[in-house]
Amino acid sequence: MGGVANLSDTAFLQSIQWRKSADADLVRAARKGDVSAFTARLLQCLPAESPPTKSTKKRPAIQGGLATAEYLPAPPAKPLRELLHTSNGHFTRKTGKSTAVEAASLAEVLNSVAQKNYKTSPADLHALTELIACNGASLEQATLFLLWRTTLAAACEFTNDPSTTDEGDPAQTADEQLLQAGELPWRVGLLFGDVKGSTKIRRRGRKVIRRELEDRTDGDGTPHATLLPRLGYWLAALVRSGQWANRFQATLWDDDLSMLFNDLLEQAIRLYRPSDSWAMSNGFSASPRSLFRAASQLAGSEFKIADLAFAWDQAPSNTRKRKAKSKKSASASTKPRLKKLAPSSQSDWANLACLRSDWETECDSIVVDHNGQFPQIDMTVLGRALINGNWDLKIQVDGKPVSVKRQWTAICWNTDEDGDYIELQQTFASGGRVERQIWLSRSTHSAMFADSLTGFSGKQIEYSSRLPLSDALDTQSDSGDRETRLKDGPILTRVFPLFLPQDRVHGTPGGCGIFGDDLVLKHVAAGQGLYAPIVLDWHPDRRRKPVQWRKLTVTEDGRILPGDVSAGYRVRLGEQHLLAYRKLQKSDLPQTVLGFQTFDETVLGQFDKNGDVTPLLLVE
């Protein structure tokens, strides 16, 4: 695409260089400088909406793609933004033509763009290309030609800009790089496919789009944790690029990348929140429902959970009246083909894990991003936000602080019908290590968070951690014991710090309580290590049940073990009676806790009525 000067319409057309394969009638009219004939032929050449496939006929139509400003990293200039907002990207033709008001409004904006009243941004070019593709066929010829010329001029300016490279600007976010280096060249190359040089630009954009998909996802489609705060913007660029590929009957993905894209959609939908937001979605406010609707149409029948996405799209977002479902009733409403698809996932490469009870919109879920200095937690209970932010950690050994770095490694992941479990580890150059455990039940509406500190050289360890709570919570502490309650409407989450004495009459240097907007845990222990588990329970049937927890005696070969060697706890809440055990120092001998003998490092179990333990989790 060559440079475009401020010429008359006739001279402008005659200055364009065309591909040899370009439409003959279009080229003939352009070379004659016949604006009327050129525009008439252009109308016939504009792409039509792709017909629905067999798998998408019953799904809602995509209205205007994902072109609205809320799906772009930055909005277009005010005139274009107002135009898109007013018309929603569409100009109706009640009598075969656009209304005079719409035509005048669009012409005014286009004249402003053409006269360079402001610098055309990538978002402006995006809006212009969308107007042509989606609305061009409904415009009057004079308005269409003005739009086409203005967009071509902006496209030439953009593609000839030296700063527009395949690599993108390192200072930009991933979604901004994808938009500018991938999606826009892809769009421009398709829209002006008859113009000389468009093939090179289109291929350049496709190369970047493909590279972005491969480089920023794991082999199972899991997006890297660094994408999460702006995942919606990044994913929207891929979806829009796919929509344009369908519209222009072009090939964007090969078979392997098509499967990877579908896998990405399945992983992304695991991060959906019933509040119509994303897990850890700082800065992205656009509706994920609309994005999933468009994405599932694009993926078609290969998208295994497309039907679920549409069921969610119709679901109400208010969950205050939500009641817990039994495991049986919850699975009954899930599509049969989803029963074999695990709701949870984990990726070492992506530094990301999603613990999830089921595929229901209002499930229990914990998303863990361990890419930073502290693991970031996004937890929902019965679909309502509970914890959101960094799981802070401070350690002092004999009064000296231990520096926590960005070096978390997922050393254990387990998922089965009982629950999901992840364990993160960090070792310290000064000696010692910490393991952070998270377990989420699939059916009992309960979870466990725990820190295990081992191998420290000193006489005393001071430990504290913070879990940031949702703003919507009302908090309270029991005056008689150390239970903390977190209330969100009818949903009550009870927190039991098992490492502390239950009764407040027993003094302890540790603590558990609300400080500011955080749940703060503190513990002080003698020796080389400690184990600090908390259990959370939000089952509606247990909200008023009495609770009892205590520390257990752990023995090995008839010898009672100190707390920095092994630790065991039990908590009883109604019919829920759990055992939490952790071996803090290596031993080849079995250890016994409340009659349960084990060689394992970690045990989470359920006591039955006879006092026998049924393991829910065993970690060697």
UniProtKB/TrEMBL annotation:
Source species: Symmachiella dynata
Composition bias type Basic residues, residue spans: 319-328
Location of region: Disordered: 319-344
Protein name: Uncharacterized protein
